[in-house]
Amino acid sequence: MPLTPGIDPRDAAPISPGRPAAALRAVIRTQYDTASFRADIMAGLVVGLLALPLSMALAIASGVAPQHGLYTAIVAGALTAVLGGSRVQVTGPTAAFVAVLVPVSAHFGLGGLLLATMMAGVLLVILGVSGMGRLVEFVPFPVTTGFTAGIALVIATLQLPDFLGLTVTHMPEQYLSKLGALLAALPTMRPAELAVGTVTLAVLIVWPRWSRRIPAPLVAIIVGGAFAYGLALAGSNLEVPTINSRFTYEVHGVTRAGIPRMPPQPVLPWRMPGPDGEPLVLGFALIRALAPAAFAIAMLGAIESLLSAVVADGMTGHKHDSDAELVAQGIGNMVAPFLGGFAATGALARTAANVRAGARSPLAAVFHSIFLLVAVVLVAPLLGHLPMASLAALLLVVAWNMVEWRHFGYTVRRAPRSDVAVLLACFGLTVVFDMVVAVTAGVVMSSLLFMRRMAEVSGTRLIGPEHPELDVPLPRGVLLYEIAGPLFFGAAQKALAAITVMERREVRTVVLDLRSVPALDATGLVALESLVKRLNAQGVKVILAGVPPQPMRVLARAGWRNRRGILRIFRSFERAIALARHYAPGTDHR
Questions:
Q1: Would you say domain 459-582 falls under CATH 3.30.750.24?
Q2: Adjacent-strand bridge partners of 324
Q3: Domain span(s) for CATH 3.30.750.24 in the chain
Q4: For position 223, what pLDDT does the model report?
């Protein structure tokens, strides 16, 4: 696969699997020079410009103040880049988390959100250290597509109040109730906010067709902010809500509007405000209440970060270390809450922008974090003037881009009906309930479908006396059955049920050709043992022929041994057939 322009082929050294900072170590071993350093700085600047508005918008969408999104990108972005297993991955707050984080911040406040993030970080580290990173890759495509589309719909719905200027007195928790509340609030729509949101949305759509050198979100929010300022000058009744009018912070007992002009400050997550504004009380009850959310954050973070890393591999020709990446994501999520950051994961859009901007090492993501830190310290007061309607428009585009709708429609039209059912079920469950329910149900459904498909391809065929692989036909009294497919709990009974000699009185030996059985589990072992006992009870000897390595290990572990005149086990198909001929009727071989 050709490397993306801007990626030096010299940087394609292999990554040492499972080691902390695997990607950075691999880069250090290559000829990383001044040109690469400059390329990383420029890529970090480009991604920083993209991440600046996104981080604030995603924090607001998650139910917390915008500076916490910036702190997340600064702290988690730098840590995971240095410690991770992907050379060009950029970590930060992502839209996929919004549907999971909104209920947490609503029920437990900022403190609960930070504590749940820290707990999720611990789970991610455990996943990475235990080598479970590769298992995340087995989450079926219809499941990920379904819950991603569901999350996108939820995110888009949550932006409508700010985009349309609706006054919603109470936003229910359930999605269908949310829709009802939004419909009831339509008469309160304010044209000024709709106009600002529409202008921002238009720039987001049109700008990439003109230029990709400057990120469209940066241009769009500047244009939207200027348009909102012009409306405010035209009349006070045309003023629209901004970050300054919506959010405040407190420094030394003084309350100020907007975003604090200071770097991330050390905090104790469990001492941050709860839903009532008072500090949380850390205890087992709180941890137990946050456990489901922490699990959801960890699973979604693992899936999204590894999917993003896979896409980055395809763009660069490199290979990421999934376990090292999960450990790094876990550490990032463990540390970020102590500096005001919340859940973070690999961000696909920012990672792709990083690659296109010419990033050559994890240092590009570090520079992106440094840029955001400088922006917070220098221009925080200006950021407070950004209109809420513009940030809502930005997230509407993010939600749209989360789902490749053409591909979604193509899958629904052309994929097997069973896969379509899983996709639509995950989509619906994500919207109506949450991602945890959707992913759990989707994985269970996919597993059941997989078992059914394996049962369909597993089977038994009775081979006649004359077989292409046999030089001499089998003698009377010998039956050869060919078993194909894995003998596991979803297929063993079906595959072995066809073997019978009840109507063949002359049969004295049955050969089971297992060469096409790649795997045998406990259920298959029990089914095979029952078959052997049934045949032995009818006076029939059984020969297992051509047993592959994995089934042979299972048989040995279960204590199966050659039993003279009853059972023989052979790795070699030819030796098994030779013995079967030797067992032909008319000769005593006991």
A1: yes
A2: none
A3: 459-582
A4: 96
